[in-house]
């Protein structure tokens, strides 16, 4: 299973962040386009440390409910956490909430002002296999998973996926057949 990636970023709403300033409305409150940019930045901060050298990611799908207004001067905490991973596709749950109180003193989470999902697709350099494709390493990886209680079939499937080799190849190594 892929690790859960998370990130939290705090921003203070300024005049430049308002709907009026970004052209998405006429009110001097946090504009949805700016909020979306902050949420996408949180997904990047969560995912980027895990990317192979030379890779990047791009946002491809967003669902967002902007539930409440944030006035100029309001501290907003945006967060992103892995919800689903399938190869190059990474889906994050995202949220934004007010931080109430004096920052660093009596601060506490306030109301949720946005929630949704952001999907990113990784591109660039091909990731290195998580397991060596050496025959001994493949056998050892299957045995290790079986020792932890995984059944042989599931262990073979997982090892093949992590090593980037066909399941049949791992099966044959484990069962003594031709690789």
Explain the overall architecture.
The structure is a single chain. The chain is 30% helix and 32% strand. The radius of gyration is 22 Å and the shape is elongated. The chain folds into 2 domains: 6-123, Thiol Ester Dehydrase, Chain A (Roll); 135-175, no CATH class. Strands 1-3-4-5-2 form a 5-stranded antiparallel beta sheet, covered by helices on one side. The two termini are 26 Å apart. The chain has 179 residues and is of the alpha+beta class. The protein is built from 5 helices and 5 strands, in the order E-H-H-E-E-E-E-H-H-H. The model has no long low-confidence stretch (mean pLDDT 89).
Question: What layout of secondary structure does this protein have?
Answer:
Blueprint: E1 6-12, H1 19-22, H2 32-47, E2 56-66, E3 75-86, E4 89-100, E5 108-123, H3 135-147, H4 152-163, H5 167-175
Antiparallel strand pairs: 1-3, 2-5, 3-4, 4-5
């Amino acid at each position: 299973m892929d690790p859960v990636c998370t990130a939290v970023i705090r921003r203070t709403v300024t005049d430049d962040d308002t709907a009026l300033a970004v052209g998405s409305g006429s009110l001097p409150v946090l504009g949805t386009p700016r909020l979306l940019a902050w949420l996408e930045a949180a997904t990047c901060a969560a995912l980027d440390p895990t990317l192979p050298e030379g890779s990047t990611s791009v946002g491809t799908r967003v669902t967002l409910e902007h539930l409440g207004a944030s006035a100029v001067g309001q501290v907003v905490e945006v967060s992103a956490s892995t919800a689903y991973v399938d190869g190059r596709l990474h889906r994050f749950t995202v949220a934004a909430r007010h931080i109430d109180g004096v920052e660093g003193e009596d601060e506490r989470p306030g109301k949720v002002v946005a929630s949704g999902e952001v999907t990113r697709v990784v591109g660039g350099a091909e990731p290195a296999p998580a397991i060596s494709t050496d025959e001994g390493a493949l056998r050892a990886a299957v045995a290790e998973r079986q020792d932890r209680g995984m059944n042989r079939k599931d262990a073979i499937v997982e090892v093949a996926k992590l090593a980037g080799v066909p399941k049949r190849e791992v099966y044959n190594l484990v069962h003594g057949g031709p690789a």
